Amino acid sequence: MVVFGSLTIETFRSEVGNVFTVDTVPEPVKIKLLRLKEGVATLKDFRVPFSLIFGTPRDTLLVEGVYDMKSESGREFRQIMMAPIQSTGPLQEYQVIHN
User: Fold this and answer.
1) DSSP symbols for 49-73
2) Domain count along the chain
3) Which is nearest to 67 in space by CA: 12, 5, 16, 24?
4) What is the C-alpha separation between 62 and 4, in angstroms, rounded?
5) Residue 25: which domain range?
6) How large is the C-alpha radius of gyration of the chain?
7) Which of 39, 40, 71, 97 can bridge 49 by disulfide, Cβ–Cβ 3.0-4.6 Å?
8) Cα separation, 90 vs 63, whole angstroms
């Protein structure tokens, strides 16, 4: 399990393109990590801020919330805050921000 405070952009570089299983009710949802966005570090930051963009088919909608998920690589992530964002095309996109 990966602890929230220890997450960095490097934690997720090898996960881009992987499918994650999100613990949801009534059944788990598959979501793909589409891309990373790296922010700009400032002197007061303890890490470089970054965001993750995930996607699901348009007919699958996750509400904004905190989720536990597991990557197809076997890595588990707990208490990840994710929100749907406006997106065009065949996928509904979601953003996870780490400041």
Assistant:
1) -EEEEEEEETT--PPSEEEEEEETT
2) 1
3) 24
4) 21
5) 4-98
6) 13
7) 39
8) 18
Beta-carbon-side half-sphere exposure of residue 28 (alpha carbons within 13 Å): 11
Q: What is the DSSP letter of 25?
A: S
Measure the CA–CA gap between 50 and 45, rounded to whole angstroms.
12
CB 50 within 8 A of CB 67: no
Angle at 82 between CA 81 and CA 83, to 5 degrees: 130
In tens digits, the chain (99 residues) has pLDDT values of 444 457 888 889 999 999 999 999 999 999 999 999 988 777 665 678 899 999 999 999 999 999 999 999 999 999 999 999 998 889 999 999 987
- The predicted model scores a pTM of 0.86
Residue showing tokens 């909608």 = 61
